[in-house]
């Protein structure tokens, strides 16, 4: 079955690639900020999630607002999944996944149950929605330092690869649905902001977050043969070691108190699947990409001004290897950052880089910009009208 899957994926890849007549790489964009025009689809709404209220209640107001969009998204996932393995996946989702919710760590188990209750979506499907991103997300994240030692951290979140291509609209089906679920969350405790994130309503882990004045954190998927997603399947079928990646990022944002503390936790905790953690701190030299396997850390690649390394950038390939030739977002992104120079780096110019195709592509759901010193998190829903690369 595994081989069959691989062949399916490769064939899709090749057909799509020839269909789109190869990568569309454009000149580095400039003056894209403030966001406007055809690549800007909209602002993201802010909600407060109060960590002092019980986990099952925390997301109520968010989910009341976003229930219709979540239902649409879940239906789209089901339509797609129904087409594989004669609907057996759906059977698994509705029969097996509700059982695993109690095996998830607190408070995530309670929060997920709360989301299911408020929206009326079957528990197994909310669980599936929360697992999904660990599997189908490709991204670009960057941490940079300017000449004054200010640290900026930004990312494009690209989601939905191979998940249904809408031929008429030239869009990815799930990507478009997901854009409607993008929300900004202010997590508060004792009536003050503890951390902020950009997320998808109904998803309780974190892919993009900031702890104001302390650190910033994003996660990118790492495709890897040393373990891959076997850990997730093992969890579902009873062997439960390691931590869900996006639960760890949330835990770190909630409970780590400094860049160094966050780095240690991200590097040392056993995981269910490989990942890249991109971490920014609040002073000079504090920015790194942590390359993880399930059990250990292969590499921590840090900003080093003495070596002329004033930024670190991660897509979905180990930084010491070449990116996959059909998916090179790294070279164009680095080219544009190099062209910007450290003297002119800012949230505005980083937005320009993240607006340049193929760094911006048809999978891009949102762009986030973070400035640790002010605690600022700005996110924008994106679009990439044709001609534009599918990923
Ligand atoms: C700095 O970036 C801005 C915004 O993209 C651009 O207009 C300006 O020309 C750049 N300045 C230099 C010195 O490159
Ligand atoms: C997005 O927010 C900015 C700043 O608050 C505002 O100027 C702009 O009109 C908003 N755009 C849309 C499309 O809502
Ligand atoms: C495709 O585009 C049309 C017209 O722009 C729009 O009405 C329709 O909702 C889109 N379909 C999807 C699935 O996004
Ligand atoms: C938060 O503020 C509200 C009103 O401002 C107050 O009623 C409540 O007691 C405060 N909660 C905490 C935990 O300080
Ligand atoms: C953070 O620590 C507190 C206190 O130990 C704990 O109650 C909470 O669940 C932790 N948060 C996460 C997300 O694990
Ligand atoms: C940076 O973070 C550390 C650890 O949280 C904190 O003690 C320090 O005050 C912060 N520095 C700045 C400039 O905010
Ligand atoms: C960008 O600059 C860095 C540091 O000078 C260099 O190592 C890298 O090759 C450059 N990348 C591109 C794509 O220009």
TrEMBL record:
Stretches that traverse the bilayer: 6-25
Main location: other
GO cellular component, one term: lysosome
Record: active site: 139
GO MF term (any one): N-acylsphingosine amidohydrolase activity
Enzyme class: hydrolase
InterPro entries in the cross-refs: Acid_ceramidase-like (IPR016699), Acid_ceramidase_N (IPR029130), CBAH/NAAA_C (IPR029132)
Pfam families per the UniProt record, alphabetical: CBAH, NAAA-beta
Domain Choloylglycine hydrolase/NAAA C-terminal: 139-376
The protein's Enzyme Commission number: 3.5.1.23
UniProt domain Acid ceramidase N-terminal: residue ranges: 43-103
Biological process per Gene Ontology, one example term: fatty acid metabolic process
Localization of this protein: Lysosome; Secreted
Pathway linked to the protein: Lipid metabolism; sphingolipid metabolism; Sphingolipid metabolism
Gene3D superfamilies for this protein: Penicillin V Acylase, Chain A
Catalytically driven reaction(s): an N-acylsphing-4-enine + H2O = sphing-4-enine + a fatty acid
Record keywords: Disulfide bond, Glycoprotein, Hydrolase, Lipid metabolism, Lysosome, Membrane, Secreted, Signal, Sphingolipid metabolism, Transmembrane, Transmembrane helix
Origin: domain of life: Eukaryota
PANTHER family reported for this sequence: ACID AMIDASE (PTHR28583), ACID CERAMIDASE (PTHR28583:SF1)
Family membership: Belongs to the acid ceramidase family.
Record protein name field: Acid ceramidase
Source organism (scientific name): Electrophorus electricus (Electric eel)
Source lineage: Eukaryota, Metazoa, Chordata, Craniata, Vertebrata
Gene: asah1a
């Amino acid at each position: 079955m595994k081989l069959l899957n691989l062949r399916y994926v490769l064939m899709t890849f090749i057909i799509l690639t020839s269909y789109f007549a190869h990568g569309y790489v454009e000149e580095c964009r400039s003056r894209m900020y403030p966001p406007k025009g055809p690549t800007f689809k909209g602002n993201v709404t802010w909600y407060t999630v109060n960590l002092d209220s019980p986990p099952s209640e925390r997301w109520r107001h968010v989910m009341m607002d976003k229930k219709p969009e979540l239902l649409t998204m879940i239906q789209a996932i089901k339509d797609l999944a129904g087409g594989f393995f004669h609907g057996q996946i759906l059977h698994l989702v509705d029969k097996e996944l509700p059982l695993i919710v109690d095996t998830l760590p607190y408070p995530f188990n309670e929060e997920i149950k709360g989301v299911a209750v408020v929206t009326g979506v079957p528990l197994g499907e909310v669980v599936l929605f929360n697992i999904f991103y660990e599997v189908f997300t490709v991204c670009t994240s960057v941490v940079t330092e300017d000449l004054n030692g200010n640290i900026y951290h930004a990312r494009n979140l690209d989601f939905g690869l191979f998940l249904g291509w809408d031929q008429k609209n030239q869009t990815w089906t799930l990507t478009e649905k997901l854009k409607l679920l993008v929300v900004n969350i202010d997590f508060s405790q004792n009536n003050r902001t503890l951390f902020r994130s950009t997320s998808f309503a109904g998803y309780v882990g974190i892919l993009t977050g900031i702890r104001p004045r302390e650190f910033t954190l994003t996660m990118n998927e790492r495709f890897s043969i040393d373990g891959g997603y076997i850990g997730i399947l093992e969890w579902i079928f009873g062997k439960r070691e390691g931590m869900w990646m996006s639960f760890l990022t949330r835990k770190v944002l909630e409970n780590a108190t400094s860049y160094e503390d966050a780095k240690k936790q991200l590097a040392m905790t056993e995981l269910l699947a490989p990942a890249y953690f991109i971490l920014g701190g609040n002073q000079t030299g504090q920015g790194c990409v942590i390359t993880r396997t399930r059990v250990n850390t292969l590499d921590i690649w840090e900003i080093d001004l003495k070596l002329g390394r004033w930024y670190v950038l991660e897509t979905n390939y180990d930084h010491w290897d070449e990116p996959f030739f059909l998916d090179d977002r790294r070279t164009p992104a680095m080219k544009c950052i190099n062209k910007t120079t450290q003297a002119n780096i800012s949230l505005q110019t980083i937005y320009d880089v993240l607006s340049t195709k193929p760094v911006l592509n048809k999978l891009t759901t949102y762009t986030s910009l973070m400035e640790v010193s002010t605690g600022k998190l700005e996110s924008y829903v994106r679009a990439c009208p044709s001609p534009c690369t599918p990923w």
